[in-house]
Amino acid sequence: MTGRFDRLSLSRFTPEDKAVGVAASAVLAGAIGLAVFNPLAGERAVADDAPQAAAVVQQGKSAESPAAAKAAERADGGTGNVSAADARAEGFKVAPRAVKPSEVIKLAEKQIGTREGKGGMTKYHNWYVSTPQAAATAERDGGFSVNDYKGAQWCNMFVSWLGAQTGVKNMGWDAYTVQHATWFKKTDRWGHKPKPGAVVFFDWKNGSSGGIGGIDHVGIVVKDNGNGKITTVEGNTDNAVKKKVRDKSQVVGYGYPDYAS
């Protein structure tokens, strides 16, 4: 689903963007990022596999909503004890637990070939919208309907779904690449080594010389190929989940969940 929700903003538009008016703002709201459990301030929102995406700056919210804080108390992505029932109520398939990278990679590879359906929808959208965290972050980011997430760019929803299905600790849940990367950095889980199972963030324009604010896309590292390239599995790539080989020069950085050794 390339091109539908590229770099977006609710606070600063080009003259062409302003001409779209209020109706466009309502649609664009669906692509605002989610920093579930740890909402953070962001800069630019995007989640697409289109290097030519138009650049529009988005100023993220900095305050955690009461609903998001309550969710963090019940299911914090692995920093506390959560019952199986509570974990399922929050959107996990299993409670946060010790998970090896190979388990996440295996699940990601099983998704290869999954494509968008009607309206650009996937099971990853359906899962995300079903979680109470979606409502909490929609409230945090301006009070729009969680239904606005349906059909939005979904590379980060895919990564979040992998974490929720496997119970990885501190993978983070997000639909906004910039927010997600910022969360990894602020929690000291950010770096520049392509470890298997790491969450990899791309900037098509500036690559590794760019910053977190320019991130365009996200996926999961399968392996470091040792030749300046990495193998990944990514959602929202030509409207599907695909295995890709990417140049490291396109990578801004990597987020490291708390995997079992």
Report the C-alpha radius of gyration, rounded: 17 Å
In the sheet with the most strands, the strands line up as 1-6-2-3-4-5
What order do the SSEs take from the amino end to the carboxyl end, as H and E? HHHHHHHHHEEEEEE
User: How many individual β-strands?
Assistant: 6
Low-confidence regions = 1-79
Write the layout of secondary structure elements.
Layout: H1 15-20, H2 22-28, H3 66-74, H4 84-90, H5 101-110, H6 123-130, H7 132-140, H8 155-166, H9 177-186, E1 190-191, E2 199-202, E3 217-224, E4 229-237, E5 240-247, E6 251-255
Antiparallel strand pairs: 1-6, 2-3, 2-6, 3-4, 4-5
Written description of the protein model:
This protein has helices at 15-20, 22-28, 66-74, 84-90, 101-110, 123-130, 132-140, 155-166, 177-186; strands at residues 190-191, 199-202, 217-224, 229-237, 240-247, 251-255. With 261 residues, the protein is an alpha+beta fold. It has one domain (15-255). The protein has a 6-stranded antiparallel sheet. The N and C termini lie far apart (36 Å).
Descriptive terms for the model:
six-stranded antiparallel beta sheet; 261 residues; disordered N terminus; alpha+beta; 9 helices
Short description:
The protein has 261 residues and is α+β, with helices and mostly antiparallel strands. It is built from nine helices and six strands; from the N terminus they run αααααααααββββββ.
